[in-house]
């Protein structure tokens, strides 16, 4: 669904609340030409206590950390960005949804060096359903191993959530979709499994979980961390610095993606090879329900991960 079909009204931009259609930039914006922006994707969930933002502090921390390689300064404090986010959710009357903070080099000159360009900052929020399709959470998705490789972290910092990085994600995802798959798995430069275009990946084998380590050119996903925590709390052993070869994907008992947008999505087939029984596996199902019980607050666990919009 496009933004024009949504009932949304307000975006916070550079210190002010603007009407949705007025949150615009000049066509000579540095970030538009060179991909020099950093951003976050965050979800708020509809709970008994109103909308609750999931792991807001960690997302904010990652946003500020993402600016560091680019010597970019966000001219607002964490408190100001938090207040703006809460107010954007309220003004758009959202029960839950997706939150998109972004900071990018703005308009001044167009040398590759951003020297005197300001850092523009915006926060938008809108309703957003299941990222990989309606039945993806239950039945899983069919994916292909992309012919595109991830950037090595010696080429571009893959642990910073940079707008320009997503050209690679788009190429991989669209290649998969052109070939009839829902999503891609992207290998790193060494040819080992890195992640999805916008998701981390987990493998289950003999009751143990494996996920590529941070040195494998992945984003340090917050949902990845959540699922590792939930799994360990339930007694699972998790190798969170695994090296997973392409062939191991095919012989896995279960595979699933994690991400703020994708949540916990089972993978049914890789390159048309059926994974496990070809349905959502039991470990995936257990962790997926634990995840949704957590974020929709059917449990009191991990209160520290939630920011209740109506109570701030
Ligand atoms: N990897 C990439 C490349 C992503 O874009 C995302 C989505 N932010 C993730 C992993 C998952 O990260 P998170 O769980 O923090 O959303």
From TrEMBL:
Keywords: Amino-acid biosynthesis, Aminotransferase, Branched-chain amino acid biosynthesis, Pyridoxal phosphate, Transferase. One of its GO terms (molecular function) is L-isoleucine-2-oxoglutarate transaminase activity. Its EC number is 2.6.1.42. It catalyses: L-valine + 2-oxoglutarate = 3-methyl-2-oxobutanoate + L-glutamate; L-isoleucine + 2-oxoglutarate = (S)-3-methyl-2-oxopentanoate + L-glutamate; L-leucine + 2-oxoglutarate = 4-methyl-2-oxopentanoate + L-glutamate. One of its GO terms (biological process) is isoleucine biosynthetic process. The keyword Amino-acid biosynthesis applies. It is an enzyme of class 2 (transferase). Its cofactor is pyridoxal 5'-phosphate. InterPro entries: Aminotrans_IV, Aminotransferase-like, B_amino_transI, BCAT-like_C, BCAT-like_N, BCAT_family, Class-IV_PLP-Dep_Aminotrnsfr. Pathway: Amino-acid biosynthesis; L-leucine biosynthesis; L-leucine from 3-methyl-2-oxobutanoate: step 4/4; Amino-acid biosynthesis; L-isoleucine biosynthesis; L-isoleucine from 2-oxobutanoate: step 4/4; Amino-acid biosynthesis; L-valine biosynthesis; L-valine from pyruvate: step 4/4. NCBIfam families: ilvE_I, PRK06606.1. Belongs to the class-IV pyridoxal-phosphate-dependent aminotransferase family. This is Branched-chain-amino-acid aminotransferase. The lineage of its organism: Archaea, Methanobacteriati, Methanobacteriota, Stenosarchaea group, Halobacteria. The gene is ilvE_2.
